Predict the structure.
Amino acid sequence: MVDKVDFHEFEVEVMRKILSGNDEVLDTLQKQYNLSRIKDREFSGTGFFTTFHLPNNAPRLKISKSFQIGDVIGQINGVEYGVGFVLFIKDGFLDILEGYTYGEEVWPSKILEYSLSYISGDYRDMEKLQLKWK
C-alpha cells in the first residue's frame, strides 16, 4: 500500500507493473516509456486516458502489430470494486494508457492509498501475455 501519492507517481507505478517481465517486447516498451512524454491526459469521470508522445529516436518493436496489455488491476481508496488498466500499443509503439473503475464508480479525485496486482495473482502469466504479440 502507498499513501498520498500524486497522480503522476501513481501512473509511473502502473506503467512499471504493466511493463514488468523478462521479455524482449516488454523491454522495448520500457525503453519507449523511458523516452516518452505525456501528450495528453483526459479524465472521463470513471477513469482516465493518457496519450504518450515518443521522440523519433524511440526504438520500435520488431513487430508492428497493434495489441493491448490489460492484465494489471488495482485497489484504490474509495473505489469499492477496484480498477483496471489497459496499455494500447499501436504500430509497434506505446500509444495510450487507460485506467478505469469497474461498474459506474467515479474515479477518485485524490489517490490516498492503492495496491496493484495481476489478474492472475501475485505472478504474471507470461505465456498468456505473450500470445498478444506472437
User: Anything to note?
Assistant: Residues 19 and 26 are 5 Å apart (CA to CA).
